[in-house]
Write a sequence for this structure.
């Protein structure tokens, strides 16, 4: 019988927790949660061997362990560093980490096309979130950005290599989830690219999961491309009996139309576990079942990560009281002023609902009698 694992104490951003021996700093930080958990672009807890590529998750090890409290001389990748008993880690409390992360974002964006306005991943893109939180306003890069032709990876997936950050997650999916690996990373350095060997199409039951693990818009669902912006869609949890996968998905609808089907995601933007196993979904569920009648709808998806998709879906949202009676505990106001009486902005003769397009300063021009 193997010996029970030791319990280590680790302090991250001044919060101390107990974790099992063998836990990484990142896993320990995720147990604390919130901003204490470093951002990740390549690590994916459901994919063996992932991590150690992007350096987004760097942290400062201020004290190595109880036995040897010397600090580690360099910032460490938290996804690849195991905790030691008595270790003291700084993430958001370290200026060095914040500066380094800004640098990492600048590197990740060196060759990125910054085409968020036309990219299907916008709104659910880890790189977009990362650059908002840690990026700089401008770039110092003056050279031509590398570009690649778009490539079809099988009938349902398009690879837009120009957006790829070489996190390797999709190649791990190909290795670990599908029964034949026909795509990988070719070449080195600036020339590295994801490619199907000799443009072989990936056509197996679980290849669509590459779309879900891609942190940027490099791998997109061809059945959803350019159909809608994710923040305009309504996400619903649904399930069906499937003999290939867990059949538990999120449907993304506009009106009653199912625009796309994805696996369910957790707060780290990773595929959720279902019955203790990663809830990967098969291509049939993802690409072929696009009618609500194919699914048993469970209810609205709770999006518990910070994202534009979460707009209007924050758990525990407290709506302000809207009527005067509610606000005043049933009493009536003594004096009720009409906003038009006290404001020069909203002229009473302007009927806002009649304005064509967006209101401009001309709309409220005092001499204007007609909506413009
Ligand atoms: S295509 Fe996406 S998942 Fe694959 S390496 Fe590039 S960024 Fe990562
Ligand atoms: S998430 Fe740790 S190096 Fe990429």
């Amino acid at each position: 019988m193997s010996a029970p694992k030791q319990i280590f104490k680790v302090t991250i951003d001044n919060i101390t927790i107990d974790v099992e021996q063998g836990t990484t700093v990142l896993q320990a930080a995720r147990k604390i949660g919130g901003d204490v958990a470093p951002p990740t672009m390549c690590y994916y807890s459901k994919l063996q061997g992932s991590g150690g590529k992007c350096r987004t998750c760097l942290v400062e090890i201020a004290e190595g362990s109880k036995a040897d409290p010397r600090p580690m001389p360099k910032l460490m990748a938290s996804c690849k560093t195991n905790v030691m008993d008595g270790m003291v880690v700084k993430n958001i409390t370290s200026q060095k980490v914040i500066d380094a992360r800004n640098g990492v974002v600048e590197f990740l964006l060196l060759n990125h096309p910054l085409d968020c306005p036309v990219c299907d991943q916008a709104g659910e893109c880890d790189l977009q979130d990362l650059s908002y939180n840690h990026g700089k306003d401008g770039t110092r890069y003056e050279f031509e950005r590398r570009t690649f032709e778009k490539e079809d990876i099988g009938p349902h997936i398009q690879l837009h290599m120009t957006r790829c950050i070489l996190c390797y997650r999709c190649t791990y999916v190909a290795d670990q989830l599908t029964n034949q690996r026909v795509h990988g990373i070719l070449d080195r350095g600036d020339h590295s690219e994801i490619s199907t060997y000799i443009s072989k199409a990936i056509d197996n039951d679980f290849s669509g999961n590459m779309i879900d693990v891609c942190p940027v818009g490099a791998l997109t669902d061809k059945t959803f491309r350019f159909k809608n912006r994710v923040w305009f869609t309504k996400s619903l949890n649904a399930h069906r009996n499937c003999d290939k996968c867990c059949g538990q998905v999120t449907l993304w609808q506009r009106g009653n139309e199912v625009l796309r089907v994805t696996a369910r995601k957790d707060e780290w933007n990773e595929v959720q576990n279902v019955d203790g196993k990663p809830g990967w979904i098969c291509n049939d569920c993802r690409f072929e079942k696009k009618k609500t009648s194919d699914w048993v709808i469970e209810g609205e998806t709770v999006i518990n990560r910070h994202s534009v998709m979460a707009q209007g879906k924050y758990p525990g949202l407290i709506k302000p009281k809207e009527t005067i009676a509610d606000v005043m505990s049933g009493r009536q106001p003594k004096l009720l002023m009409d906003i038009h009486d006290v404001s020069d902005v909203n002229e009473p003769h302007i009927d806002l609902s009649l304005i064509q397009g967006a209101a401009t300063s001309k709309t409220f021009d005092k001499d204007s009698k007609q909506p413009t």
In short: The radius of gyration is 25 Å. Residues 119-125+142-221 form a domain with the Alpha-Beta Plaits fold (CATH 3.30.70.20).
